[in-house]
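Not sure how to ask, but would you mind making up any protein sequence you like and the tokens describing how it folds?
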Amino acid sequence: MSYNHLCFSIFFEDKKNIISSMGELFFDRKKLRDIKLVSCKTKMIEWIDPQYGQLSIFFIGSNKDISKTIYLSNSYSGLVSFVRFFSKSIGCKCIQIRISTLPESGIFEYEVMQSGISIRIVQLIQDTKWIFFTKGDPLPYEDVSVYENRLMKNKFNAEIIKTYLKAEGIDFDTLFNNEYTGVKYETMSWEYLD
């Protein structure tokens, strides 16, 4: 698998509950306008390396192999504010992953939130130089000794993120290669955030 930029979230909630809650939030309350939704199947490979300037699209779905719900977006940021809003609205745990290996905008980020509140962030981000950042108490499965590495590429990277996901019962390679059934949303308006 090859990619320069990948961003996805995993809601620790059943797909039916997520999609039902999405409908209540967006349609019954009419907080999101200009939206189109389609039932479809997709793979994560179709959501890597997003291009700027495209219509905002996101997908929520799952498959029979996992009890969690995957969230994918064509937004470069992964629509992190939406993920936080939705995690808070339905009161569930969520993990957000951002990986970018582009030289001008490198990032490796692992964030765990509960009901929209960040409980742990581990991040290595490239500004003018690489900056390592953590927030919250280390999770039981974290190997905090790696954060002491002098080489930034060994301090935090995609392999460490995969290890953390595995501790949460999520195999990254399986996740990446699986096909998901769910709903794809296209929107031009984000007025649901009050």
